[in-house]
């Protein structure tokens, strides 16, 4: 029970990966506050999580639109009122947003994806940071995605926002290092969630044939299990990962269980961070400017 006595806010937790993370946290002893925009789904998730919670645990829920600062502030206040503290933030809520070539998509829809995925993530961090700084400890876990590390044609809002939150996480990690607050991003793998269903519903005309065919293949093969990403989030939320900060970690490909043994090497290193590739990284010498 590595999260016994700890309190976590998990956003976008009414379904998919967010719900899987919530289940893992509850099974490990945490008290949780979950949020989502859909009140009905949120209450159903709360009931299911409460059934697996121990007698001393509590599962609270509050409908929240993370793109609205007042609602995010109220979420943090409600969590503090219910539990007296916050130890962990899992910023999971996100949308794909509008799909199609950038010169053809609806601008308001494109901007809305940035409001939720990027600005909503920053709002969540702003809401918990005063409390984390006061107690000089906290864990912030930000869910990234494929868009952070590779181009995603026809999904530019999603890709730009995911790259943005990873660089934001790296930056925030440096800002709050002296407060013993760890900030990390998680790449959970290619999962079969509602986001994949959206790609299939949009069709090749909007998302491109290559990406559409990739989505069909993933759907048929099952994708990465939700539990894989949830396990990494559990590790990053626990004391076991203390000192691991400012990193983008792949749940599928990285040996994250061994990271506590490599803290000295990770500190002041660009391992597991966004960076520019130069010719020398690929064994080429193109000369100097």
Verbal overview:
The chain has ten helices and seven strands. The protein has 289 residues and is α/β, with parallel strands linked by helices. It folds into two domains: 7-189 and 225-275, Rossmann fold (3-Layer(aba) Sandwich); 191-223. The chain has a seven-stranded parallel β-sheet, sandwiched between helices. Helix 1 (16-27) packs across helix 9 (226-237) and helix 3 (69-83) runs parallel beside helix 4 (107-135). It is globular.
Briefly, what is this?
The protein is 46% helix and 11% strand. By secondary structure, it is α/β, with parallel strands linked by helices.
Mind sketching the topology for me?
Blueprint: E1 7-11, H1 16-27, E2 31-35, H2 39-52, E3 59-61, H3 69-83, E4 88-91, H4 107-135, E5 138-143, H5 156-175, E6 181-187, H6 194-202, H7 204-207, H8 209-221, H9 226-237, E7 248-250, H10 263-266
Parallel strand pairs: 1-2, 1-4, 2-3, 4-5, 5-6, 6-7
**Beginning-to-end CA distance, first to last residue:** 56 Å
CATH topological fold name of the largest domain? Rossmann fold
Q: Helix-strand pattern, N to C?
A: EHEHEHEHEHEHHHHEH
Q: Uncertain spans, ≥5 residues at pLDDT below 50?
A: none
Compute the number of structural domains: 2
- Summarize the amount of helix as a percent range: 40-55%
Indicate the structural class.
alpha/beta
The top-level CATH class of the largest domain is Alpha Beta
What characteristics describe this protein?
289 residues; alpha/beta; Rossmann fold; 2 domains; 7-stranded parallel beta sheet; 10 helices; 7 strands; globular
